[in-house]
TrEMBL record, chain B:
<protein>
    <recommendedName>
        <fullName>Branched-chain amino acid ABC transporter permease</fullName>
    </recommendedName>
</protein>
<keyword id="KW-1133">Transmembrane helix</keyword>
<dbReference type="GO" id="GO:0006865">
    <property type="term" value="P:amino acid transport"/>
</dbReference>
<feature type="transmembrane region" description="Helical">
    <location>
        <begin position="42"/>
        <end position="59"/>
    </location>
</feature>
<feature type="transmembrane region" description="Helical">
    <location>
        <begin position="140"/>
        <end position="159"/>
    </location>
</feature>
<keyword id="KW-0472">Membrane</keyword>
<keyword id="KW-0813">Transport</keyword>
From TrEMBL, chain C:
<dbReference type="GO" id="GO:0015807">
    <property type="term" value="P:L-amino acid transport"/>
</dbReference>
<dbReference type="GO" id="GO:0015658">
    <property type="term" value="F:branched-chain amino acid transmembrane transporter activity"/>
</dbReference>
<dbReference type="InterPro" id="IPR052156">
    <property type="entry name" value="BCAA_Transport_ATP-bd_LivF"/>
</dbReference>
<protein>
    <recommendedName>
        <fullName>ABC transporter domain-containing protein</fullName>
    </recommendedName>
</protein>
<dbReference type="InterPro" id="IPR027417">
    <property type="entry name" value="P-loop_NTPase"/>
</dbReference>
<dbReference type="Pfam" id="PF00005">
    <property type="entry name" value="ABC_tran"/>
</dbReference>
<keyword id="KW-0029">Amino-acid transport</keyword>
TrEMBL record, chain D:
<keyword id="KW-0732">Signal</keyword>
<dbReference type="Pfam" id="PF13458">
    <property type="entry name" value="Peripla_BP_6"/>
</dbReference>
<feature type="domain" description="Leucine-binding protein">
    <location>
        <begin position="43"/>
        <end position="394"/>
    </location>
</feature>
<keyword id="KW-0029">Amino-acid transport</keyword>
<keyword id="KW-0813">Transport</keyword>
<dbReference type="InterPro" id="IPR051010">
    <property type="entry name" value="BCAA_transport"/>
</dbReference>
<dbReference type="InterPro" id="IPR000709">
    <property type="entry name" value="Leu_Ile_Val-bd"/>
</dbReference>
Length: 610, 291, 234, 408
């Protein structure tokens, strides 16, 4: 991930940059320069739009910010005689402000709802531009938008201006990608829920992404207005949104170079297609369909694969494979033949082991209702520092619902949950995680498309302070944070015995290893209280006893554990206390031997044979 | 007052068509998880088929509607098979962009096949208004409304009662489990996409005599259908009907009393307001529900 | 009845099954045990056509099925009750059962079978019009099994029916499986709870890393040192 | 899978190849065949028109008139003995597309003069480009007054044949209130520069004559349901409706006007709405008794700038198989082709853009839409004929003309 550029790509980059700088002197054709300028505008737009893709959001509203920037800049310069540099930044800021407002309203939505609400905003912006005649001059448009400066004659000054903007933007985005922020964004895209549980706020990073994207789009809009010198509501047309989205997706979403390539291809392609006259748009549509069919991840990744294959063929070397050589055996990493060695898991955490009598977490009169269903009703219990508390009960008794309520992933209808002295009710899941409460999920939850090692890096990274500026400037602190995360990841890999799988994609790990990795992710976020949701589900006896050892080891390091589990062997042997739920109500609480013989527990849950 | 009632009536008439469009789209989204941007182009093609078959070839109007539904439905089936099935497992933006490509392709092919000149289909029913008290109703519009609701009710029955309908709903909820029950998921997808496309075509065919037929008529319809689907709640049939009527009436009142220029904003403002207040739409469910 | 010969299955470049050969005879209850990731579910998915083998053959009633679609395989009478319950949450219990009978056309018999089935699964009785998603986990598992049974399987494949269930429900599920077997249904059971599986089954295959490492009568395997150590936790 | 990868590789190769092709070679564009009878290299000129998109029909009509015009010029010996040849690029009536088309025409095709770009926004976006390169632009359709307002970038290079909305309203001013009796008027127009411009100028003209505007509605070009607006207009006590939009939308409005059983006087403006087209799109009865402002009446040859040419044009148009509905828009291309031809001849056959721009100010051409001439005094603006046409029983009759018919 954070590897420095290879020598080849450095040369390639330097070559591309000098070719771009020299373009006006090597090409006499003004039309190509003009297309290059337009490509530049679209590179800005596509790269900005791509920031949202990096956090897993597909927006259909990029033109709103582009158009707003263009209008702000055009109105300020033509109507109020504001000098261009001021108008330029005002355009960026206005778009950012709009991004903030719209982001706050929409970023809680997901999937198609988000896609279409952003489309709605863009259309509303267009209709305002069209109908607010007094301000925007409506469909008649704003004519005679001045050039940025008197000496902006011909295309060359515009070309260098946009080139500068593009280089700065790409450099900034590159720096961001390889920073704490970039890693957090990657975590969110891969698994937003899990990201929240290790202290990464999906909402805040999405908002950050929206602000950055709208700022860049606003600047691009301003540039457009002063380059075209005429502005009309067509700048807000849906067609343009499509063009931008096509550039990002067809270029290669969430890659740095994909949108750049996409922007160039899709600026040039419609011009090339002029050859076919009225067939132009029909063929464009057809090409778009074909591209989705045959290069669904984009041109850039396809080219990369091609390049890699050529490289291999020429040099005869194989690049390092990221997939494990075999499907993985369950005994690898764990002890073979059922004799698990002591598991040397060690966690470093800031909380010193505390006195057992101290109460860490209190749940009072907790109620969670879904519609008319009382999933959890008036449940009270507390967790003492350093203990292992198990919650058991039949399916649907409300165990996971309680974990979700504590970690604020799910709702609380009534009642109070407090951690030490802080009330958790009003917090968001990432804030709970930052209180030192970690968790695992019932269904395996990892960052599936990055390496095992990277999973742990992302998890360790979650708690780092985020400062955009520090990251972009690559301050000592941010460099140190990156190093720390790498070191911590390696340590956990070693301790969970996942070291041989460090480079494997998380999704390709055998199931048992995935469950261990989940635990590793939770540990990497350095919790003082760890909530485990059915960690033994689907593990075989040797694996379970291994898990048992791990849990005890973790507790010895001073981490308090709440365990939701069906495996009675595990529960009975590790728990200090057990809470039993049935139909959302607590029916028993006590030491394992008390619970085991409790009549109600036997009837509702354990059955006579156990 | 009279105007208000007339606006409500007008809104109801156009709302029926919005509902019909929305249901086709919501069905496709629900089962296949595809945001179909070519929905308006299926509507456009339905209108063009009616123009070709009814106006040019002189086939009776009702038959022409059936032909339109079948032809466009078949196109939907082919689209699913050739375009959407190969990319079914890709992230959702891939099929979305593929349907955007399809919409551009279809609109521009219509431009080439039927030329850009707007077409008039002629009237199968009188368009001259019948005065009902101070209100005006036309037989043609009444027919459109009745037909829209017959088609909606028919689709609902089909989904609830028929074997295929149940298979569609099962696939919607759990594709793999449905396959293990013996449901041919590929067939379900083809039927669903074809059915949704046919409903859009019927809407186009129904409105063709009232309006004009031209290649770019679909774009705005796609947007309106999205509004209906989102406001009603993704995958919700009753939601789509409610939202369709709501949108029709809101637009009529808005265009009448507020501003014509902002009329098209009403659909989007409705989307924004509903989603900010109720993020799953009016009748939407946490888990999408097709009922 | 079912014969798998030298089957190899790959996910991408990863080999999930390595030369697996196994068979199920008419009326038998055969179980697969092994760790997660050993390939148990893959065996069932390959038989039901959800994944296809790269190498090897699968025959059912002397007919090649390894190149058939899931639909065709269901029609031959192989019904796969997948892992994790997988009822249709927004359909009623009754409609879920209808889906079980999807491939059947004998309307009258379906109705009688359904009534009989509801007697056998009292937990579902009177819940016909309830939304399946509102059932508890145990009820859902029963519904999933009932749904599969209504398809009149010649071979019923159950994938991890006890997974994630409370101990008391695990017993109930085991009882149901025992009854089904007693009434003559051929069952291929994939069970991670090895103890329960070995108690129920006539024969057992042990899968490790995609290979069959042991096979034999269940009572023999119950005595096997390796099985006891690795899967029974002794 | 392997198949897919192969195809993907193939597709990327195609994309790359086309990219390379643009960067090295010049794109071939459609060139209507110049008359074979003429020798010598053709004289190229650029045309920007909407060939796709929502107004593709209008673009097609303008191009059909242009094609007839160029054919006629070439049949009569061409320009300076050389055939005239248009290079037509699609502007989609989109500002950015049109500006790109202009850049393409100027720098790659090296055209000395351009006609276009239909809509005012597109024309206004093209103007900075022609100004940058110093290429004259002949505007055949756009109506925004900004195009011929000094100070607009590119003003010096623009020569407009079509009238502004203000000129149109001014010409109709004496008739609206006094002759047609429009006292309480509703405006229902398309929400673009054209509709807005006409709305504003007609409002002014009507109010100056003592009439009253009771309602003003601007609807999107794609709007098909106007019942709400018509219901309001009906309730507002309006006695007349002034409409500025395309023939298709007017036909739609007329249908719904009929549905509601309305009886207001209808006047359409803009000069593009050939009543026969509206009749075809609605029905002849619906168009009965309506009024239309036109700049060329295809059936009233005597009123045209050159009656004989009008007659010839009408016949030729039908012979070429162009749709009749396009007659109302097509004449613009015909006149523009002749203006360009004449300007080149007046420039002593030189294709130097600078002097060609000067030569344009000396053009005097009796075209279909009247006498075309651009003088500095008129602000680069020609002054075409304006007619008020009434439709009765499917027949068009000019009830007023401005200026009164004059012979060249």
């Amino acid at each position: 991930m954070a590897q420095p550029l290879t020598r080849t790509s450095r040369y390639l980059l330097a070559g591309l940059l000098s070719a771009a700088v020299l373009l006006p002197y090597t090409v006499s054709d003004q039309f190509i320069i003009r297309l290059a300028i337009q490509s530049g505008i679209f590179i800005l737009l596509a790269s900005a739009h791509n920031i949202l893709m990096k956090v897993g959001l597909l927006s259909l509203g990029p033109v709103a910010f582009y158009g707003l920037g263009a209008y702000v800049s055009a109105i300020l310069t033509t109507r109020y005689d504001v000098p261009f540099p001021v108008a330029f930044f005002a355009a960026g800021l206005a778009a950012t402000a709009a991004g903030w407002v719209i982001g706050r309203l929409t970023l809680r939505l997901r999937t198609a709802y988000f896609v279409l609400v952003t489309l709605g905003f863009a259309e509303c912006f267009r209709l305002v531009a069209l109908n607010w005649i007094d301000m925007t001059n409506g469909p008649m448009g704003i004519t005679a938008v001045p050039p940025p400066a008197r000496w902006f004659v011909g295309y060359i000054p515009y070309f260098y201006f946009i080139l500068l903007l593009v280089v700065l933007t790409l450099f900034g985005l590159y720096r961001m990608e390889h920073s704490t922020i970039g890693r957090a964004m990657q975590a969110i895209r891969q698994n937003e829920l899990l990201a929240g549980s290790i202290g990464i706020s999906g909402f805040r990073y999405m908002l950050l992404a929206a602000l950055l994207a709208s700022f860049i789009m606003g600047l691009a809009g301003s540039f457009y207005a002063h380059f075209f010198q005429f502005l009309s509501p067509e700048i807000l047309a849906f067609d343009l949104t499509i063009a931008i989205v096509v550039m990002v997706v067809a270029g290669g979403r969430a890659t740095l170079m994909g949108p750049v390539l996409g922007a160039i291809v899709f600026t040039v392609l419609p011009e090339v297609l002029r050859v076919v006259q009225v067939w132009r748009m029909a063929i464009f549509g057809l090409l778009l369909m074909l591209m989705m069919l045959f290069m669904p991840d984009g041109i850039w990744p396809a080219l990369q694969r091609l390049g890699q294959r050529c490289f291999e063929r020429v040099t005869g070397r194989r690049t390092a494979a990221v997939v494990p050589s075999s499907f993985g055996s369950p005994s690898e990493g764990f002890a073979a033949n059922g004799s698990p060695p002591p598991v040397p898991v060690r966690v470093e955490h800031e909380v010193t082991p505390t006195d057992r009598s101290q109460t860490l977490l209190t749940v009072e009169r907790l109620c969670v209702h879904f519609g008319g269903v009382q999933a959890v009703h008036m449940v009270d219990f507390d967790v003492k520092a350093g203990e292992i508390l198990s919650i058991i009960g039949p399916n649907g008794a409300g165990k996971t619902t309680i974990l979700n309520a504590i970690t604020r992933v799910g709702p609380i209808t009534d009642g109070k949950i407090s951690h030490q002295d802080a009330l958790l009710n009003g917090l968001r899941s990432y804030e709970v995680a930052r209180c030192g409460i970690g968790r695992t999920f019932q269904n395996t939850s990892l960052f599936p498309d990055v390496s095992t090692r990277q999973n742990l890096v992302l998890a360790h990274n979650g708690l780092e302070p985020e400062s955009l500026l520090l990251n972009l400037l690559r301050s000592d602190a941010s460099v140190q944070a990156a190093k720390d995360a790498e070191v911590a990841a390696d340590r956990i890999l070693e301790r969970t015995r996942l070291l041989p799988y460090g480079a494997s994609l998380a999704r390709s790990l055998p199931y048992g290893h995935q469950r261990v990795l989940e635990l590793g992710i939770a540990l990497a976020a350095r919790p003082s209280l760890l909530l485990l949701d059915e960690p033994a589900a689907g593990l075989n006896p040797p694996e379970v006893s291994n898990l048992m050892a791990m849990i005890q080891q973790i507790r010895h390091e001073g981490v308090t554990i709440v365990l939701v589990e069906h495996d009675m062997k595990l529960v009975m042997s590790v728990s200090d206390r057990i809470v039993v739920l049935d139909h959302g109500r607590k029916i028993a609480e006590g030491r394992p031997e008390e619970v085991r013989t409790n009549q109600r527990v036997v009837e509702a849950y354990l059955g006579k044979r156990s | 007052m009279v105007e208000l009632v007339q606006h409500l009536l007008n809104g109801f008439l156009i709302g029926g068509i919005y509902a019909l469009m929305g249901i086709g789209l919501t069905l496709i989204f629900g089962v296949m998880n595809v945001v179909n941007f070519a929905h308006g182009q299926f509507y456009m093609l339905g209108a063009f088929v009616v123009y070709t078959v009814f106006t040019l070839a002189g086939v009776p109007y009702l038959l022409a509607l059936v032909v339109a539904a079948m032809a466009v439905g078949l196109l939907g089936v082919i689209t699913e098979r050739l375009l959407l099935r190969p990319i079914r497992d890709q992230p959702p933006d891939v099929p979305m962009l593929a349907t955007i490509g399809l919409s551009i392709f279809l609109a521009n092919m219509a431009l080439i096949i039927w030329d850009p000149t707007p077409k008039d289909t002629g009237l199968p029913f009188p368009l001259v208004g019948v005065k009902v008290g101070p209100l005006t109703l036309t037989p043609m519009r009444l027919f459109v409304l009745v037909a829209a609701f017959v088609i909606i009710a028919g689709s609902h029955l089909f989904l609830q009662r028929s074997r295929m309908g149940k298979a569609i709903r099962a696939t919607f909820q759990d594709r793999e489990a449905a396959a293990l029950m013996g449901v041919d998921v590929d067939v379900v997808n083809m039927v669903t996409f074809g059915w949704g496309a046919a409903m859009a075509a019927l809407a186009g065919g129904l409105l063709a005599p009232i309006f004009q037929v031209f290649p770019t008529m679909g774009a705005i319809v796609t947007a309106k259908s999205f509004a209906v689907v989102i406001v009603g709640g993704l995958g919700s049939f009753p939601g789509a009907i409610l939202a369709g009527l709501l949108l029709g009436i809101a637009e009529s009142l808005g265009a009448g009393y507020v501003s014509s220029g902002y009329r098209d904003a009403i659909a989007f403002i409705l989307i924004i307001v509903v989603l900010v207040v109720r993020p799953t739409g009016l009748l939407g469910h946490e888990t999408h529900k097709l009922a | 009845m079912l014969q798998m010969t030298n089957v190899e299955v790959y996910y991408g470049s990863v080999r999930a099954l390595d030369s697996v050969t196994l068979h199920v005879d008419e009326g038998e209850l055969v179980t697969l045990i092994g760790s997660n990731g050993a390939g148990k579910s893959t065996v069932l998915k390959t038989v039901s056509g959800l994944t296809s083998p790269r190498v090897g053959t699968i025959e059912f009633l002397n007919q090649r099925i390894d190149d058939m679609s899931p639909t065709e395989i269901v029609r031959l009478g192989i019904v796969h009750c997948p892992e994790g319950r997988r009822v249709f949450p927004d359909m009623t219990v009754g409609e879920n059962l209808d889906m079980g009978a999807y491939t059947r056309s004998d309307t009258d018999d379906i109705a009688t079978d359904r009534d009989r089935l509801l007697e056998r699964f009292p937990i579902l009785h009177g819940r016909q019009h309830q939304r399946a998603g509102d059932l508890s986990g145990g009820q859902q598992q029963m519904l999933a099994i009932a749904r599969a049974v209504l398809a009149q399987p010649r071979l019923l494949m159950l994938d991890e029916p006890s997974l994630g269930l409370a101990p008391i429900l695990v017993e109930q599920v085991a009882d149901i499986i025992r009854e089904l077997h007693a009434s003559g249904t051929t069952i291929l059971l994939n069970e991670q709870n090895a103890e329960m599986a070995l108690r129920l089954a006539d024969r057992t295959y042990v899968l490790e890393t995609g290979r069959v490492t042991l096979e034999g009568a269940s009572e023999d395997l119950l005595q096997n040192e390796h099985v006891r150590k690795s899967y029974l936790g002794d | 899978m392997i198949q897919t990868q192969k195809l993907a590789r193939g597709l990327s190769a195609v994309v790359l190849a086309t990219l390379m092709a643009t960067c090295t070679g010049s794109p071939t564009v459609d060139r209507t065949d110049a008359s074979d009878a003429l020798d010598g290299d053709p004289i190229l000129f650029g045309v920007i028109a909407p060939l796709t998109g929502p107004v593709a029909d209008a673009g097609a009509y303008v191009v059909s008139g242009l094609t007839i015009g160029v054919g006629k010029i070439n049949a009569q010996g061409g320009v300076c003995g050389r055939p005239l040849e248009p290079i037509i690029l699609d502007g989609m009536n989109d500002p950015q597309e049109s500006a790109n088309a202009a850049e393409n025409l100027i720098t790659r095709e090296q055209v000395p003069i351009i006609m276009g770009a239909w809509g005012s926004s597109s024309t206004l976006a093209v103007m900075p480009v022609v100004a940058r390169h110093g290429i004259p632009l002949v505007v055949e359709t756009s109506s925004s007054d900004k195009i011929t307002t000094p100070g607009t970038p590119g003003f010096d290079w623009v020569h407009r044949i079509s009238p502004t909305s203000a000129m149109e309203a001014e010409a109709m001013k004496p008739y609206l209130v006094d002759e047609l009796g429009m006292q309480r008027v509703a405006i229902l127009s398309v929400n673009n520069d054209w509709g807005r411009g006409a709305g504003a100028t007609f409002r002014q003209a009507i109010e100056e004559q003592g009439g009253q505007i009771v309602r003003e509605d601007y609807i999107d070009q794609t709007v098909t349901d106007v019942l709400p607006q018509l219901t309001q207009i009906n309730g507002s006590g309006a006695d007349a409706i002034v409409m500025t939009t395309g023939a298709a939308q007017i036909a739609t409005i007329l249908k719904q006007y009929t549905e509601l059983g309305m009886d207001q006087l209808i006047l359409t403006t803009g000069g593009s709405n050939y009543p026969v087209a509206i009749m075809q799109l609605a029905s002849p009865e619906m168009v009965n008794g309506t009024y239309h402002v036109m700049f060329y009446v295809p059936t009233e040859h005597a009123l045209a700038g050159d009656p004989a040419m009008s007659e010839w044009y009408y016949d030729t148009y039908a012979e070429n198989g162009y749709p009749e509905v396009g007659l109302g828009e097509s004449y613009r291309g015909f006149d523009a082709a002749h203006v360009i031809a004449q300007a080149i001849e007046l420039n002593d056959c030189s294709l130097d853009p600078e002097s060609l721009n000067q030569a344009l100010t000396r053009v005097e051409f009796a075209g279909l839409s009247g006498l075309v001439r651009f003088s500095e005094a008129h602000g680069h603006q020609s002054r075409p004929n304006v007619y008020l046409v009434r439709v009765d029983n499917g027949e068009l009759a000019a009830v007023a003309a401005d200026p009164p018919v004059e012979q060249p």
